[in-house]
Specification:
The complex is a heterodimer of chains A (355) and B (235).
Chain A lengths: L2 E9 L2 E9 L3 E5 L6 H9 L6 E6 L2 E5 L4 E2 L7 E4 L11 H12 L8 H8 L14 H14 L4 E5 L7 H16 L5 E5 L2 H7 L2 E6 L2 E6 L1 H6 L1 H4 L4 E11 L4 E6 L2 E6 L8 E7 L3 E4 L10 E12 L4 E8 L2 E8 H7 L6 E6 L3 E2 L5
Parallel strand pairs in A: 3-9, 3-10, 7-8, 8-9
Antiparallel strand pairs in A: 1-2, 1-4, 4-5, 5-6, 10-11, 12-13, 12-15, 13-14, 15-21, 16-20, 17-18, 17-20, 18-19
Chain B lengths: L3 H4 L2 H34 L5 H13 L2 H12 L6 H8 L7 H25 L3 H9 L4 H30 L2 H7 L9 H10 L4 H34 L2
The chains are: A alpha+beta (355), B mainly alpha (235).
Chain lengths: 355, 235
């Protein structure tokens, strides 16, 4: 199941002009507020009508200006999860959940009510009204309601943005479970790096109403043209040991790293995130430093930034680490493509649990 | 203890019964149309919307006598539609209780539409959109989401319209006169009492009764609307 989007829409003074394809898994539309992410979701859902273009779900055109196709939202078979849960206040949770399934009828196979309430842990809420739910509970019911309509695809429009930090950490795992259960492909709108890092199989980076880059989360975060000064590397890493001095040791493609004790089992995989600004580069293996984490790689890209800084990318195995240094350092160190370089990491974080 | 049946004369009881009958029919028969007009004014944009809004509200602003006169010219036996209705369906409105019902319905219409329109406008269209994305066709969105959420306003509008219909006088007496047992509702009975020198007592009794009916309707509408609103919110 692939969703192909190629639309232009003039929304007031704002021009939306996006082209991308969303393969199976979770495609995250990523970008700052006001870049047009939600408008794309609304166009796919049929809530706004683009001026021209096509939206094709698998082989089924949902919108095609040339062929004069514009399916009404109720015929698109997409489950939309909105930022505010938008539950029906006059119906109990169970009626909210089964609302879409009733319209889907028997013609489509979907998960059962039991499956969904188990997955989301909402079995005890079935007879409550939405007014009696907490924010996190309402968010879970909204997810369940979309799933039970047996959609061809789920569209989630910043479903966690209205929740506080603790609730976000509570709900995000359900989306990860949803992705891993491969029930249905999903388009997920977010401006949160954490959500993207944990959830995305494909990232569509947007800015100013356009798609500026498409790639994996690691690709996109390393690109200074997308992330600017916030570029960072995402490195998949595995825990190899917990040490007596309170440090946990992980191994990633670029070498071993040490982090404060992690409450996770040896052998489990985690995502490390290293900000480009938190890296110091050295031409030779440094010694006598307090920094514990020194990774090595080959310079694969040197890119001048608009603000006078330079972004240097190191390739280490199949991962890329990027460092943001000054133009002066770059010149005085004589950095060039293909050189081996050492990255001294002043601090690194696990993508999980970080805002 | 007052003997209620003996307190009012048979003609007066007839007026009360007729008033309730006219107001009930006026309310029930105009409600679907009021709902449609309210929905159209709240949600649709179409050519002539201001005109429709004006026509709906006209009876509220025009002198009731004028409304009654227009009804007479349109629905009277020699009126534009009145003759056709009589020939085609045998429906006679002028000087008949059904005509009193029509006059009451027309006069109550703006109040009913206004209350319903406000409650429809208060519904978050994004909730209706989310129902549509779950597969509900527009008619189902209306039936399962819009209608229940607008229920408090519909009830309030209907009761307000009922109270207005009970008290309608000007348009009714112009259109259908005040024939005892046929078109003489409470207000026109009071008017007739006041025309005779010794009718003061009878008028007073009907005035007291009108106040009781009006207060009961208002209190009931408040209570029902509040209960319905609480039910819709789920609290």
């Amino acid at each position: 199941m692939t969703l192909q989007v190629d639309i232009k829409a003039q929304l007031g003074a704002f021009l939306l002009d996006v082209q991308f394809a969303a393969p199976a898994g979770v495609t995250v539309l990523f970008g700052p507020s006001g870049c047009g992410k939600s408008s794309v979701i609304n166009a796919i859902a049929g809530l706004i009508r683009p001026d021209q273009g096509q939206i094709i779900c698998a082989t089924r055109p949902l919108f095609d200006s040339a062929a004069r196709v514009n399916l009404h939202p109720h015929r698109r078979r997409l489950g939309v999860i909105f930022q505010d849960a938008r539950l029906f206040p006059h119906l109990i949770v169970q009626q909210n959940l089964t609302y879409g399934r009733w319209f889907a009828g028997r013609r489509r196979q979907g998960p059962s009510l039991q499956d969904v309430t188990d997955l989301l842990g909402i079995g005890h809420l079935l007879h409550r009204r939405p007014a009696a739910l907490s924010g996190g509970e309402a968010a879970r019911v909204a997810i369940g309601r979309a799933l039970l309509s047996a959609p061809d695809m789920i569209l989630a429009d910043e479903p966690l943005a209205a929740l506080d930090e603790a609730r976000r950490a509570e709900i995000l795992p359900y989306f990860i479970a949803l992705r891993d259960a491969a029930l249905v492909p999903m388009i997920y709108v977010s401006h949160s790096v954490t959500e993207v890092a944990q959830l995305a199989t494909t990232v569509v980076a947007m800015g100013g109403g356009r798609v500026i880059a498409v790639g994996s989360a690691a690709d996109i975060f390393g690109r200074s043209d997308v992330m600017g000064a916030n570029a960072s590397a995402l490195l998949p890493a595995r825990i190899v040991g917990h040490h007596a001095d309170g440090l946990s040791e992980l191994v990633c493609a670029a070498g071993h790293v040490f982090v404060p004790h992690m409450n996770a089992a040896i052998g489990t995989s985690h995502m490390l995130r290293i900000h480009a600004g938190d890296i110091t580069l050295a031409r030779s293996q440094p010694s006598g430093l307090s920094a514990l984490n020194i990774l090595s790689g080959e310079i694969c890209r040197i890119e001048a930034q608009s603000d006078g800084a330079v972004m240097v990318s190191l390739r280490a195995g199949d991962a890329t680490i990027c460092a943001r240094i000054t133009q002066r350092s770059c010149t005085s160190m004589g950095l060039d493509m293909g050189q081996t370089c050492f990255a001294i990491v002043k601090s690194l974080s696990l993508a999980k649990g970080e805002p | 203890m007052i003997d209620a049946a003996g307190w009012l004369g048979p003609d007066e009881w007839e007026a009360v019964r007729l008033s309730l009958q006219v107001a009930a029919w006026a309310t029930v028969a105009s409600l679907p149309l009021a709902l449609l007009a309210a929905y159209a004014l709240a949600r649709w944009s179409f050519w002539g919307k201001s005109l429709l809004n004006g026509i709906v509200h006209l009876p509220l602003i025009l002198p009731p006598v004028v409304t009654g006169y227009i009804l007479l010219r349109v629905f009277g036996r020699r009126g534009v539609l009145g003759g056709w209705l009589e020939d085609a369906f045998g429906i006679v409105l002028s000087f008949h209780w059904t005509g009193a019902g029509l006059a009451a319905a027309v006069m109550a219409f703006p109040l009913t539409v206004r209350a319903i329109r406000l409650s429809i406008e208060a519904i978050d269209t994004r909730i209706e959109n989310s129902a549509a994305t779950l597969g509900a066709a527009p008619i189902w969105v209306f039936a399962t989401i819009t209608l229940p959420l607008a229920l408090p306003g519909i009830i309030a509008g209907a009761i307000l319209g009922f109270a207005k219909a009970l008290g309608e006088f000007g348009a009714t007496i112009t259109f259908v006169g005040a024939i005892p047992g046929q078109t003489q509702t409470i207000p026109s009975a009071i008017y007739v009492f006041l025309q005779s020198p010794d009718g003061g007592q009878g008028a007073l009794r009907l005035v007291v009764l009108s106040v009781v009916i009006a207060m009961t309707a208002l209190i009931a509408s408040e209570w029902v609307a509040r209960r319905a609103a609480a039910w819709v919110r789920g609290t």
